[in-house]
Design brief:
The complex is a heterodimer of chains A (289) and B (398). With 289 residues, chain A is mostly helical. Chain A has one domain: Orthogonal Bundle (ABC transporter involved in vitamin B12 uptake, BtuC), CATH 1.10.3470. Chain A has eleven helices and two strands. Chain A has a two-stranded antiparallel ribbon with strand order 1-2. In chain A, helix 1 packs antiparallel against helix 8, helix 1 runs antiparallel to helix 10 and helix 2 packs antiparallel against helix 3. The longest helix of chain A is centred in the first third of the chain and has 31 residues. Chain A is globular and about 65 Å long. The termini of chain A are far apart. Chain B starts with a helix and ends in a 7-residue tail after the last strand. In chain B, helix 5 links the parallel strand 4 and strand 5. In chain B, the strands form two sheets. In chain B, strands 7, 8, 9, 10, 11, 12, 13, 14 and 15 form a nine-stranded mixed beta sheet that branches. Chain B has a six-stranded mixed beta sheet with strand order 2-3-1-4-5-6. Chain B has two domains: 208 residues, Rossmann fold, CATH 3.40.50.2300; 161 residues, Response regulator (Rossmann fold, 3-Layer(aba) Sandwich), CATH 3.40.50. The radius of gyration of chain B is 21 Å and the shape is globular. By secondary structure, chain B is an alpha/beta fold. The chains are: A mainly alpha (289), B alpha/beta (398).
Chain lengths: 289, 398
């Protein structure tokens, strides 16, 4: 009983991490129809930023906002040049550009932060465990689950329930119409790109206690994020959450029951879902152009 | 292809060596032509940090040797295999055909080592596998010119089983490993020896290479409360496994033992921090081994870090190449003579005395049992608690 309860919590914590990775990517892909393969770089940059921040002795609870701001700033700069010139181009051109950039960023981060594995110095508060029915569960992961829950609610509200979110969605659906209303869509896109990159950095800062930071992590994260976004369905926020939950639970319980086939089972589940629901778990209402 | 600045540094070093040699005496012309050592290592991909360390280790040895071996100046040519067999193969062909290297060292990944085996054998190129541990290279894939101045998986799994059986528990343990060739070898050899001793091993857990979240396995371990866990992970996987063990507060409950890579002093311990404390590993090297005295200090001074397996392997490879070259007065072109020179006399290295098994050119090595205890600076330090002298792989017959 306790065993399965903890495994469920394990799955939940991992799902939150996957969701955080997927959110930033999904935002740009579904709202702006822009394939941003530098998302893994934003994540890793956020991780390194958090490691440096926590190592510097600054207040630990500011590490996550700091990573968000650092990555968002990088996103804003990238939006100025060269992303803005590619928003209107086809996906192939965007993939070429952003993949190339991600390789460059990987090398730059290796130069700046070194090739060795870096882990954060976590505050004692986050290092304990709670015992649930006699089984240990780390406090860090409880915080992760809570943070993920709060963050997804905030984002959902922001993009689905505020006028500001409506402007972003309208800018994607019909950019010219929005411009005739006197709104500068250029700035809207710049802001969304900054928030998306910031989310990448933020998830990197939250996830670094679990995954550490090292060269190559950017690619792993990008792959997971793509899984989540494709599985959940493009263009919907709930889809990303659903995709992350399905993937997180599939990966965790595959490892509990049949660890030797965990990778195979996970990919099989993804393949089956894609066959059954080719548009994703939550089909988008937006028409992709 | 991006240019490789350290190859350039190697060339500079070599040039300095030439100048020095020309200045000192006036040896025969042939002897003043630089000896070209190729280093195939991973400077990109999953083994980047190991590859960088290996290069640093070999560069330190060449610097210690004054840029000369066997009276000839040394030129180091570094190539990056990216951890990929086909890339390694391409780079080795380039080193042989285009650069005309005299000896080859390096190789992090077992996949690369097995891939280049036929090419170097056909080319008759003396090759030193510094890091890859695949048992096959000491057995069915052994080659007369491929030397391995490091361990096989069996040497670590076997000695780990002996120590666990004698000192930890005879049953009630479980194993967990990264599910790829190296993990299967280490854990398989551990289980086999452990059972031959009369012990029994419980559940065997496997998890894919590059696992990010170990929590399902950790909860299983917490539920089973085993007497010990024998684990194999390397690099980032090892760091995450150790940290998550600590996160779930299993570190103090369960005795953790594994091959040395799980607690690599340079690659894993600095990142894992206190999560590494209390662990046990069997390894062919240790920063506290008496033989490593001097080297550890020099490496620390050069790079600010304690040496781990890859950097030590780079240094040892250089020592072995140097010893071989001294024995043939700097001329390895007579392959059989060079080979005999290496086989004949034991070499004193920074991992202890080394001799090569004439059946398969596999090094026979002392295997250290290291325990991770807090060092002078409070950081975990691999501290030798026992030495298995002259451990020899079963070889082609086994």
């Amino acid at each position: 009983m306790g065993f399965y309860l903890i495994q469920t919590l394990n799955a939940l914590a991992f799902s939150v991490l996957l969701m955080l990775c997927g959110l930033g990517l999904s935002l740009v892909l579904s709202l702006m129809n822009f394939v941003n393969l530098t998302h893994g770089s934003s994540y890793l940059f956020g991780s390194y930023a958090a490691v440096v921040w926590l190592g510097s002795g600054a207040p630990w609870w500011l590490a996550v906002p700091a990573a968000f701001l650092a990555a968002a700033l990088a996103g804003l700069l990238l939006d100025r040049f060269p992303f803005a010139r590619f928003y209107g181009r086809n996906h192939l051109a965007q993939v070429l550009l952003t993949y190339g950039l991600s390789v460059m960023f990987a090398d730059l981060m290796r130069l700046g932060f070194g090739a060795e594995i870096r882990s954060p110095v976590l505050p004692d508060l986050l290092r304990g465990v709670v015992f649930v029915l006699g089984m240990p569960f780390p406090i860090y992961r409880i915080v992760l689950i809570l943070a993920g829950g709060v963050l997804s609610l905030v984002l959902w509200y922001l993009f689905d329930r505020t006028i500001w979110g409506a402007v972003v969605r309208a800018s994607v659906a019909d950019r010219r119409m929005v411009e005739t209303l006197g709104l500068d869509t250029r700035r809207v896109f710049a802001l969304v790109m900054a928030i998306a990159a910031g989310l990448g950095g933020l998830s990197g800062a939250l996830g670094v206690g679990m995954l550490s930071a090292y060269p190559g992590l950017d690619e792993e994260i990008l792959l997971h994020a793509l899984f989540v976004v494709v599985l959940g369905g493009l263009g919907t926020f709930r889809g990303t959450v659903a995709g992350a939950l399905v993937l997180g639970f599939a990966m965790t319980f595959a490892r509990v029951w049949l660890p030797e086939f965990a990778g195979f089972l996970t990919l099989l589940a993804i393949a089956l879902l894609l066959v059954l629901r080719p548009d994703g778990l939550v089909a988008p209402k937006l028409r992709q152009v | 292809m991006r240019p490789n600045p350290l190859t350039r540094r190697g060339v500079l070093l070599g040039t300095a060596g030439v100048a020095l040699a020309a200045h000192c005496t006036a040896p025969a012309v042939a002897r003043s032509t630089p000896l070209r050592i190729g280093l195939l290592t991973s400077l990109s991909g999953p083994f980047t940090s190991l590859g960088e360390s290996m290069r640093a280790g070999l560069e330190l040895l060449i610097a210690d040797a004054g840029g000369q071996m066997g009276g000839r100046p040394v030129e180091l040519l570094v190539e990056d295999d990216g951890g990929k067999p086909e890339e390694g193969l391409r780079k080795v062909r380039k080193l042989i055909a285009q650069d005309g290297i005299d000896v080859l060292g390096g190789v992090i990944s077992a996949g690369v080592a097995l891939a280049i085996r036929d090419v170097v054998t056909e080319a008759g190129l003396p090759t030193f596998i510094s890091n890859a541990s695949a048992n096959a290279l000491a057995r069915e894939a052994a080659s007369p010119l491929v030397f391995r101045p490091t361990k096989t998986s069996w040497m670590l799994g076997h000695s780990g089983a002996l120590w666990t059986f004698q000192n930890i528990a005879k049953d009630g343990g479980l194993t967990v490993g990264a599910d790829y060739a190296a993990g299967r070898e280490y854990i398989g050899d551990f289980v086999q020896t452990f059972q031959e001793q009369g012990g029994s091993v419980g559940t065997q857990l496997w998890t894919p290479l590059g696992t990010t979240d170990f929590s399902p396995i950790l909860t299983t371990i917490a539920a089973e409360q085993p007497n010990f866990v024998y684990a194999f992970f390397a690099g980032a996987d090892a760091v995450r496994f150790l940290q998550q063990m600590q996160e779930y507060q299993l570190q103090d409950l369960v005795k953790l033992i594994g091959p040395g890579a799980l607690f690599d002093q340079e690659d894993v311990v600095p990142a894992a921090g206190s999560a590494a404390l209390g662990g046990i590993n069997t390894f062919q090297q240790s920063p506290t081994a008496p033989a490593a005295h001097g080297f550890v200090e020099a490496y620390l001074k050069a790079g600010g870090r304690l040496p781990g397996e890859a950097s030590t392997a780079g240094y040892v490879t250089g020592q072995v190449i140097r010893a071989g070259l001294e024995a043939v007065a700097g001329d390895p072109s007579d392959r059989e003579r060079f080979r005999q020179a290496l086989l004949e006399q034991p070499i004193e290295t920074v991992i202890g005395p080394m001799r090569f098994d004439p059946r398969n050119n596999q090094a026979v090595l002392d295997i250290y049992v290291n325990e991770l205890v807090a060092g002078p600076d409070g950081q975990p330090l691999n501290t030798v608690v026992h030495t298995f002298p002259a451990v020899q792989d079963p070889g082609p017959a086994g």
